[in-house]
Amino acid sequence: ERLDDLRRLQNAIKISANRIATLISEDFGNRSRHETLIADVWPVHAAIRHTAKHLPRWMKPRRVSVGVELSWGHARILYQPVGVVGIISPWNYPFQLALIPLMSALAAGNRVMLKPSELTPRTAEFLADFLARLFPSEKVATVLGDANVGAAFSRLSFDHLLYTGSTAVGRSVMQAAAANLTPVTLELGGKSPCIVGEDARLPAAVDSIIYGKLLSAGQTCIAPDYVLLPERLCEEFIRLAGQAVKKFYPSLRANPDYTSIVNERHYRRIMQYLDEAKNKGARVIEFNPSNESLVDEERKVPPTLVVDPEDGLALMREEIFGPVLALKTY
Description:
15% strand
């Protein structure tokens, strides 16, 4: 039954892949179709394939030894479902980060309640309809709503609760779950560093870092937030970064492959980070290969480097989640 669930889910995703890419792009204002297929849809395929291959072995009871005081007995580990699993998924990869936990919970024999992010409403509504067509409501139920619904959702007495998102909300989710002694899995934000060594092959390193930074315009939880690099390599890094941006994104405004910031609030947050850095005297370098005029309504932030910002700045304390990269020299 579990393998059948996985195969039906995989086949349905194949049929709907292009529609998923279209809906996510509409939720963002613009998001690269290729990036959605590579980073949102394909990982779910890969996870299902891996799980289906290994599931029979994972489920198999395992004999284990016993202590000398119980030498007359035998012991086995039996892998059993925990029950009903709650999943609160985020907006930045609204398909992958909803479906991989859901697939994992179903493969383990559980029932699932899913709360998608309200910041990507078209994708959330699609997920509700998509999953309702595949699974009965007593196996998979999708709950739509705003942050208040999410807060109420986290207070339910699940057998396990998974949350992906910000650290601040993660604290609230953990507090709510504690009232029911619900075990939680939290995948929260961070400040991902890239460390460039003295002997780095700089052209290759810069291409890799800029690609990782600009995937989905930096709205990725493992996107580089800052680079630590030798002081003597700083100017060369900046030059190569400009070349990489021009190679990857020769234009920005009308380029369907350069992703917009998901909403006005997050766009303003990133612009405030940059304004603060400029006001504190940091060197801010924007890359706009075609010298286009970017309008606020389209929420496209040009790829930007901030050189040697003070550690107290917001962009050095908070997860950036945008196409802004700090360079810290040593």
